[in-house]
Amino acid sequence: MQQQPAHFAYRPALDGLRAVAVSSVFAYHLGYGWLGGGFLGVDTFFVLSGYLITSLLLVEWASTGTIDFAAFWVRRARRLLPALLLVLVAVAIYAAVAVPSDELDRLRGDGLATLFYSANWRLIWSGQSYFDLFTAASPFRHAWSLAIEEQFYLVWPLVTFACLRIARGKRWALTGVCVVGSGVSMLAMAALYDEGDPSRAYYGTDARAHALLIGVLLAILLAQWKPERGKARMFSKVAGWAGAAYMVFAFIWIGDTDPWMYRGGLAVFAVAVAAVITSIVQRWRYPVRTALSVAPVVWIGKISYGLYLWHWPVIIVMTPARIGIDGTPLNLLRVAVTLAISTASFYLIEMPIRRGVLKRRMAIILTPAAFAVAGLAVVVGTVGATPPPEFAQEGTVITAGGGDPSTDTSIPTADTVPVPGAPQRVLLVGDSVAASLLPGLEAVVNENGMAFGAAALPGCGVAGGVTTDDNGEPFEWSEQCDANIASTHERVLMENNPDVVVWLSTWETADRIVDGEHVEFGTAEGDRVLTEKIDEAVVRLSSGGARVVFLTVAPHAEPNENDLGDTNDGDEKLARLNGLLEDYAAAHPETTSVIDVVEILCPDGDPPCPAEIDGVRPRPRDGRHFEGDGPRWFAERILPQLTTASAPTA
Asked: Is residue 402 part of a domain?
């Protein structure tokens, strides 16, 4: 076996591999479906980091017989902190200027977690929130992988030193730790994987460590094995080609929710990356190494850290509504802006600091100061945080009205005259969309001499069943919805004794579990089961003589400033739901009617609906929920139809 030389030569092809990794992640975040496995670029970075850091540590041990921890961590700080602190300050300014106040609290936590390299654990501990379904993505969401790498940089020199000291410079102890650690990490990922919410397995340092450790094992192997000739060289070439082919396959055809990836698939990919690294660090000519060593590719790899840091905030800020373009032109502009910012950061800030422009004494003073300034910027930039609106809080029942009808103060008696033929008591039921309409409808109904009541459950449809995501896993609030919806309706019916019940709900478009069976919305069986659940709800809501009036659900409005411009396939489901409601009302005219609100919110016809109508933005947050002047504006336009629709059909 040959010994590791007391130096570690620069390999341009490794920067080329970094370019492949960051480009795949960028394309994945831009939403290009043909690169569904682009998220694996992060795993490529993990393997590279494990290999490079361990190689440097082994070289240092071979040269000096020890590891200078302080020098190692200072080098890492010079490499990582300047660009990161700059991003934190930039996002803090963006938060102060453009982020809605009810999202600032979450953003503050994300920013501080990013600063202290714990973003991955924050993503795990924060859990899945109903509010997250229609809020803008955090500009720090991508920082989870940086956190895992930094945690590795803090711990691994200590582990390496301890293993080499115990083994008196031999590598058997370090190898044993890596082999056992990789196996435990892979088992942890498989055990922690939850198909409904894979966050714990995806973001956990323990579950992700195997990719880093596979890179470490490669460094140990190549420290003493040089496949320079004969069978070893041939094996290295074949393995490199196979690894490169598998990486291409994985980037294109593997999905981020494929269960098998959490049961060894990510480890297989890491081994493929290790095979590619093995082949491209050798001195003999090799097409893969040549391709990865092309100057523009190498340059992208050199600035890949900045590209990764900046690309996601740029995507978040440069939305279609802000920029005025969409699709490929917008994405090309995002790429250009990210390249420009990353290049400026690299040459004006990162490289000068890495080359020692700050003298030791100045660095000792400025580093903690810059760290504190970035943290303060995040805190100050998120001042004024407010709670999310009521309709964005799962587990709550938003009600209005109720009580003794004879003393109901919601019925104006002095300044209003009831509209002839209009219902005297109106009850609104539904989900978060109904909850967002509630203030406007209550005001308009009261002003027209009618009593108003409501029972809206965010995250819950009016029809029963346990709603699930596309993978068939219930949302964490779904079982509570199914358990409470009937009793809640019975209570508000008793309290309000309505003449008409207004039904506005979008969650009927979700798949659901009914009587233990998973039912997919949009199928013939799904239509049958949902129609039965609608009938059960109508019978319940009309049991006191009330008439049920369905409001159809309009397609989404044009994107707002916080909308990334993702394709919205929910409109087709809403159209199908509207058809089911219309068919049900046609078959049950004695108890139900339909008000088609699509022409109100989509006067031009096809989706997306205009963001602004008559000078009002009815659904400014996410194109679904009413806010601002929207609830009242919409309520005023449906009230005449509500009066007509509430009359029994002959």
From this structure: yes
